[in-house]
Specification:
The complex is a heterodimer of chains A (271) and B (358).
Chain A lengths: L1 H31 L2 H4 L14 H9 L2 H32 L5 H7 L9 H10 L6 H25 L3 H9 L4 H12 L1 H17 L2 H6 L8 H6 L9 H35 L2
Helix pairs in contact in A: 1-13, 3-13, 4-7, 4-10, 5-7, 7-10, 8-9, 10-13
Chain B lengths: L2 E10 L2 E10 L5 E5 L6 H9 L6 E6 L2 E2 L5 H4 L1 E4 L11 H11 L4 H14 L15 H13 L5 E5 L7 H18 L3 E5 L2 H7 L2 E6 L2 E6 L1 H6 L4 H6 L6 E8 L4 E4 L2 E4 L2 H7 L5 E5 L4 E4 L7 E10 L4 E7 L2 E7 L10 E6 L5 E4 L5 E3 L1
Parallel strand pairs in B: 3-8, 3-9, 6-7, 7-8
Antiparallel strand pairs in B: 1-2, 1-4, 4-5, 9-10, 11-12, 11-14, 12-13, 14-20, 15-19, 16-17, 16-19, 17-18, 20-21
The chains are: A mainly alpha (271), B alpha+beta (358).
């Protein structure tokens, strides 16, 4: 039994790793292959002539640099906004509970997002925000808020009330106690929640596709999909853009790894 | 600073926690709120702190009404049962916290923190985080955080109850000394009667949100105002025998136990129909041989404590706890004679529970 475990465990791990990494490998190699090599049969696994033509194409022929900047701004700002507003709401719910209110907030995440598309479009048109980054920031913030509130509430509930009361006895206001004592203690929770919001904002396609159709506010996912044209599919350019889109998320996850593991497991205990 | 509570009322839902509760401390006094769990003593303390708002009634600091003041405007220092140390700050930062909030000069903060840490033997631990400290050390950090400034009052919420027995005894003495040196008005909540007796200049015994008795530890112990106070203080507790007074025979009767009475208590007991006699375990005399006016009993259990023996005797259907000298050792069921030391009797009206005598 023991030996079986010793062999089977690593084997399963290797299999899982392979399954996870294979698409990444395929994407990266595709982005570096000349078009003639892309779909050669049998596939050319490693010994192809590498080229940066596709990267040149997306950055200098197409404006993927701008799309990348848009994605960074939209995902980043909407995450910060959702965290700031949502944390305050979550703190209030944790300390002054109203039965059912938290669930009602979460239930706003339960309808299919596409249901809200038409009213949202009408509202954004009225506000003259169509085809702007602001539109996407507002929409993403709104859609991330219920999630932030729900997650942060369980983090706040784990902080003993005594600590805030001690801070208030020591001369802080309630907001001061929140800022100096409570927020430093829920940092892992903030990091985990921020990661979720960032990934959702970064990958979002539906609203970005409908709300921001011009180059003024186009984000990476829409830009990548735009390489599927009426006459051809630009596999190389799409792959190159995919790699570019993946890198920031990788970097963020690596930087946050310590917090993420703690944050995710903390939230899982209660909630 | 004097703390004055004026007719406080507080409910949690439909449960009344404080009922017309009034209390006033002297300036610099160490006053202990004592009572069983759920008697409202912690709520009372939190109301003084400003962490709870009373439904009605007022809180005064000297002559200033602070009923609606925020905790930070009352400038009191509180020591929590859980210590409530800030886990992300080290010991130095924890102690300095109340001073840094007030934006005091860095040099002054440093001096005060070092003094407080020195006073509580924490000088070598300033760089540690709370989780790296033992329970006793955490307790000391919580105290240091309280004494680092000169607050209007100290509020203690069962600060010793999370310590082990030996440490608790040590810190109890330390606390008393500290309060004596600083002379700051202190309110101390506990359910531990030993802490209450040793620390308090006065005790306020609470029950069901009401003040049962207020007085010095000696007064409360020797002249309990009610059946509740009589049964709550003392270990073992006071023996309480329900019965009635036979005025013609000039005696108190509880089943087969008959106690002759002097004229003095007799005059005061006349009015009440049913009466409870109270006698402390140390005021029951025991003998192996009968004597004039002594009552017979049987030894139910005899426990040796080393410096004294705790003996429970069965007499006339009742069980009586007694303290006796270490050489008074008995077997189970052995015969024993006892009498109540004259002048040490307490009498309570059974229906109102209030003391009639002394």
């Amino acid at each position: 039994m023991k030996t079986l475990q010793r062999i089977l465990g690593p084997l399963l791990l290797a299999l899982a790793t392979l399954l996870t990494l294979f698409p990444v490998y395929w994407l990266v190699t595709l982005s570096l292959k000349r078009e003639v090599d892309q779909f050669a049969v049998p596939p050319i696994w490693l010994r192809f002539t590498p080229t940066l033509a596709h990267y040149y194409d997306i950055f200098f022929v197409r404006s993927f640099g701008a799309y990348l900047a848009h994605s960074v701004v939209v995902a980043g700002v909407s995450t910060l906004l959702a965290l700031a507003i949502g944390s305050l709401a979550a703190y209030s719910l944790a300390r002054f509970p109203r039965p059912g209110l938290a669930f009602w907030i979460l239930s706003n995440r339960m309808f299919p997002p596409i249901v809200s598309v038409i009213p949202l479009l009408l509202m954004l048109r009225w506000a003259k925000l169509l085809n702007s980054l602001a539109a996407l920031i507002v929409v993403y913030t709104a859609f991330n808020l219920p999630f932030v509130v729900w997650m942060m509430r369980s983090f706040f509930e784990e902080i003993p009330v005594d600590l805030e009361e001690a801070a208030m006895m020591d001369g802080q206001t309630r907001l001061g106690a929140l800022w100096r004592v409570v927020l430093p203690l829920v940092r892992p929770g903030l990091a985990a929640t921020a990661a979720f919001c960032l990934v959702i904002g970064w990958n979002e396609f539906l609203f970005a596709f409908l709300v921001a159709q011009t180059d003024a506010a186009m984000t990476l996912p829409v830009g990548i999909a735009g390489r599927v044209t009426q006459y051809e599919i630009k596999w190389g350019a799409m792959s190159a853009a995919g790699v570019v889109a993946m890198l920031p998320v990788f970097a963020f996850a690596a930087a946050m790894q310590k917090h993420l593991v703690r944050g995710l497991s903390l939230g899982a205990v209660k909630g | 600073m004097r703390i004055r509570l004026d007719n406080l009322n507080k409910r949690f839902g439909s449960t009344p926690v404080l009922r017309d509760f009034s209390l006033e401390t002297a300036a610099g006094e160490f006053l202990v709120l004592l009572g069983p769990s759920g008697c409202g003593k912690t709520t009372c303390l939190r109301t003084v702190a400003g962490l709870e708002r009373p439904d009605s009634g007022r809180v005064f600091l000297d002559d200033t009404d602070v009923t609606h003041a925020e905790p930070r405007d009352r400038d009191m220092a509180m020591v929590f049962q859980s210590y409530a140390l800030y886990p992300h700050l080290n010991v130095y930062e924890n102690i300095a916290f109340p001073l840094l909030v007030r934006k005091l000069a860095a040099g002054y903060v440093e001096k005060r923190v070092r003094q407080a840490a020195e006073r509580l033997g924490l000088a070598g631990l300033l760089q540690r985080r709370p989780r790296e400290l033992s329970g006793g050390q955490r307790q000391r950090v919580a105290l240091a955080r309280a004494i680092v400034r000169q607050p209007n009052a100290f509020l203690f919420d069962e600060p010793l109850s999370n310590l082990d027995a030996k440490l608790r005894l040590e810190m109890r003495g330390e606390l008393k000394r500290l309060q004596h040196e600083l002379g700051v008005t202190s309110l101390y909540v506990t359910h531990d009667q030993a802490e209450a007796m040793t620390l308090g200049r006065r005790l306020a015994v609470m029950k069901d949100g009401e003040l049962e008795q207020l007085g010095s530890p000696e007064e409360v112990y020797s002249r309990p105002a009610s059946l509740f106070v009589a049964g709550f203080l003392g270990s073992p507790a006071m023996n309480l025998l329900p019965g009635r007074v036979d005025a013609a025979a000039r005696c108190f009767v509880s089943g087969e136990i008959v106690v002759p009475l002097d004229a003095d208590p007799l005059g005061r007991l006349g009015a009440a129909a049913s009466i409870t006699l109270g006698i402390r375990p140390e005021n029951i005399e025991l003998a192996r041989t009968p004597g004039e006016g002594w009552l017979p009993g049987r030894v139910y259990v005899c426990e040796s404590m080393g410096n004294e023996n705790l003996i429970v005797i069965a007499a006339g259907g009742a069980h009586l706890s007694c303290r006796a000298a270490p050489e008074m050792r008995f077997d189970f069921e052995s015969s024993v004679w006892f009498r109540f030391r004259p002048g040490c009797l307490h009498f309570f009206d059974t229906s109102t529970t209030r003391a009639l005598w002394p």
